[in-house]
Design goal:
about 375 residues; alpha/beta; 18 strands; about 30% strand; disordered C terminus; binds fe (ii) ion
């Protein structure tokens, strides 16, 4: 069986200047299948359990006094989310599953050539997962790769257990990094392909979405002070499942957990809702984006001033969504220092007196909601 990554033609998109690239390794990258789980540190495990289990209904695979291992209803690997009790709320790992055990050797070679710190544990870093490689990647993010994993019951047919807001899959991560073209180049070297991005006419890239599996993304790079974690996203089957979650939060008098939405994205075309967990980690509930698996999948580039890019209905993006994000940890468990973005911020160029957005390009008399409401 051919275990090398399938060659994908170069994507077609608007030129994306990258004046500060990370050198491309000569080593073959690991063949990544998909984003698989996020390992996060929370400060109050009981409060986090209430949010993720009692309210959102994620399935507990295993738990003890220090950790809770959670999965979505259609998952068959041990977990999609680890809640780990600790002193500082942060992300310990963005974890990807690779196609074969040999891909872990490739990950070691790839990141060693990049000069990154690399740690490999045959017994894994979490329960339920075997041989794993963790790295501090060139952008400062803790990335993990694994293949061997304990299979657990896929609850897809267990409608006796489903709630109306059931979370069925882990869909993607979203990362905040100062230099999006630099991040994009490195991720393309790692085998990811860009599906959509946001740019302006001056050649600034504000965000880029990139995939391994055949959806819009496994992770996105959002321009901002970083490295930080913007959000982790779980899928529901349909839009009404997201509306149920909103109704439930209202009924529980916890509507203040809703940061943004519900709405439909322009980018990705998905229906969305953003929630904040008890530590301020952002969780997106997401459904119904589109298939991207053909090698010539067209790249969609959005104008940063298009008021429908972030919300298809033109509703405003709350400022906290642009500014707030979670710390990420190095491999010793210490928060990574934050580097400021030097290029213009998406919030600054689109919101308020200094920014502008349009609903119809060229229509300046009327057509934006953002500047009016914030
Ligand atoms: Fe997202």
């Amino acid at each position: 069986m051919d275990q090398n990554p399938t060659p994908i033609p170069e994507p077609r998109h608007k030129p994306n200047p990258n004046p500060n690239p990370i050198a491309t390794p000569t080593a073959t990258p690991p063949d990544i299948l998909r984003c698989a789980y996020m390992d996060i540190v929370v400060t109050d495990l009981a409060k986090s359990r209430e949010f993720y289990v009692d309210i959102l209904g994620l399935v507990v695979t295993e738990e003890n006094e220090n950790e809770i291992y959670l999965r979505s209803f259609e998952e068959f690997i041990h977990h999609n989310l680890v809640l780990r009790k600790g002193p500082v709320a942060a992300v310990a790992a963005f974890s990807y599953r690779v196609r074969a055990p040999e891909d872990l050797d490739r990950a070691v070679e790839f990141y060693t050539e990049l000069g990154c710190r690399v740690e490999r544990r045959a017994e894994g870093f979490t329960k339920g997962i075997g041989d794993s490689v963790r790295v501090e990647d060139p952008l400062g993010f803790p990335y993990e790769f694994f293949h061997d994993v304990e299979h657990v019951e896929r609850l897809a047919w267990r409608y006796d257990l489903y709630g109306p807001g059931a979370l069925v899959r882990l869909d993607h991560f979203n990362q905040v990094t100062p230099d999006v073209p630099r991040a994009r180049g490195y991720m393309e070297d790692l085998g990811f392909r860009v599906t959509e991005d946001i740019q302006d006419d001056d050649g600034v890239t504000y965000a880029a979405w990139m995939r391994r599996k055949s959806t819009v993304h496994d992770t996105a790079m959002t321009g901002g002070n970083g490295p930080r974690m913007h959000h982790v996203a779980f899928s529901t089957h349909e839009k009404h499942n997201i509306l149920y979650i909103c109704d439930k939060l209202g009924a529980l008098r916890k509507s203040d957990l809703i940061e943004r939405g519900p709405g439909r994205h322009g980018v990705s075309n998905a229906f969305y809702l953003y929630l904040l967990d008890p530590d301020g980690h952002r969780v997106e509930i997401y459904t119904q984006d589109y298939y991207t698996g053909d090698p010539d999948n067209p790249v969609v580039t959005w104008d940063v001033h298009d008021n429908q890019r972030r919300d298809w209905w033109g509703n405003p993006v709350v400022p906290s969504w642009y500014t707030e994000a979670s710390l990420v940890l190095d491999l010793d468990g210490n928060p990574q220092p934050i580097v400021e973005r030097e290029e213009p911020s998406e919030m600054a160029v689109t919101v308020g007196a200094d920014g502008f957005s349009y609903t119809r390009e060229g229509d300046v008399a009327k057509g934006f909601k953002l500047g009016d409401t914030l």
